[in-house]
Structure formats: structure tokens, C-alpha cells
Amino acid sequence: EEAIGMHRAALELRPVGHPHRRSSLLGLALCLLHRYDIQGAVADLEEVILLKRAALELCLPGDPDRGLFLDSLGTSLRTRFQKQAVMRDLEEAIDLHHAALELHPLGHPYRHSSRHGLALCLLRRYENQG
Question: SUPFAM superfamilies annotated for this entry (predicted)?
Fold first, then answer.
């Protein structure tokens, strides 16, 4: 709880346009995701997704970290799909992991993460739709 409060305070000190706002968004998202893992409060997961969307918007095309941000949001959407079974979350997660995979060509150190995230989403879709 204290870490979440501190990350919220740090985010207030980094308004839109601040060069380190993206890292504050992600720091808060990670703390909320950890709390979600422990307590299972859907509101935490909803906020995580909003924060990751905001961070991704700050990650412009050509940014070397863009693939990681795409994967991260895709993973959170897959988590929400597993909780709420809203198919558009899973479809968006698949699109995000595909986009990340395109940014992680053969030999890229994070390619395995993109492939793994995509595989999990496709498995969930198969389990849901056959």
C-alpha cells in the first residue's frame, strides 16, 4: 500500500510531457498488479490496464522498448480475459503480441516473450472457441 501511494505521488510530480512519466506509470502499474495477484481486486487490474495503455501511448514507433510495452499490455488484457471472459480483451491481446513479435525479429532477446504471450492467448482462444 505504501509503495502504491509513493508511486502515485511520483506520478503527480511527472505530469504529461515529463520525460520520465512513462516509468512512473509502469512503476505504479507493477505495484497494482502485485496487489491484484494477492487480493484479486478487479479494480486494480482495470487501473493496471489504463496505466499500461497510457505508458504505451508515450512509447512512440521506433522506440526500442515498444515491443516490451506491447507485450506487457497484452499480458494484462489476457489476465482480464481469464477473469471476465470478454473476447475483445483476448483479441486485442493477440494483436498486441503479434505487433510485439514483429518488433522482435529472430535473434532478438525478447522474441521468446512475445511468442510465449501470443501462444498463451491463442491457447485461451482455442479453449474458449474450439
Answer: TPR-like (SSF48452)
